[in-house]
Amino acid sequence: MSSFEELDENKRQLIQRHFELVVKANETSNLTRITSIDEAQLLHIEDSLSGLPEMENAPKGLYGDMGSGAGYPGIPLSIATGRKTLLIDSRKKKMDIMASIIEELGLEDQIEVYAGRAELLARSRAGEFSVLTARALSKLSVLMELASPLLAKDGLLICYKSHIDQEEMDDALRVQKLVGMKLNSDRSFMLDDYERRIVTFRKSGKPSVRLPRLEGQAQKNPL
């Protein structure tokens, strides 16, 4: 049985309705290239919910989805777990659409949006998050740098990936101490015919460099 099928009927309906509203909004905005029900069920919904085992190992508290876009994996994970959630994305138009969809789902007391860069959010909400996700967003080392100032002690960063080459993993392991993070788990699996890998890092202590750096520096000048 899939993770989606294990949810109760109300949660399944909310997750399906979220996708229907995304498809409707997609008629006038570029939210997602996936518009078929079957493809979305696998590559949006099941893929998002594949991180549930890692979410269950995160401390209780606020959840943030970095680079949330059309609300994946943030909205399905929030619905499945009941966690208070903040969708984080620098593209204001997408977050405005998500805010409207969240209201239509009746989840505005549970899920909020933030339109801005993670570095700016970290200046006002440092250490407030217990768990963060990032799906196909950036290199592991970049995600670790962006997540570290947002996470509380022992908070968990959950990275959704399809492929990680050895150089990317080596870079991540190299910057662990610099950003106050530590490799926590590494799980590979198949999602139908697609290779998937979920890597998590736990906030282990204070970074030895000052974070957050200026906006864009994590990507332009990696540690």
Strands side by side in the biggest sheet: 3-2-1-4-5-7-6
Could you tell me the mean pLDDT?
Answer: 94
State the total count of DSSP E strands: 7
Broad CATH class: Alpha Beta
- The CATH superfamily appears as Vaccinia Virus protein VP39
Helix content: 40-55%
| Dominant shape | globular
Give the percentage of residues in beta strands.
Answer: 15-25%
The SSE string, one letter per element, is HHHHEHEHEHEHEHEEH
CATH architecture: 3-Layer(aba) Sandwich
Counted by DSSP, the helix tally is 10
How far apart the termini lie comes to 42 Å
Return the CATH topology. Answer: Rossmann fold
Overall tally of structural domains: 1
| Overall SS class | alpha/beta
Task: Characterise the protein shown here.
This protein is of the alpha/beta class. It has ten helices and seven strands. Strands 3-2-1-4-5-7-6 form a seven-stranded mixed β-sheet, sandwiched between helices. Helix 8 packs parallel to helix 9. The N and C termini lie far apart (42 Å).
Q: TL;DR of this structure?
A:
This protein is of the alpha/beta class and 223 residues long.
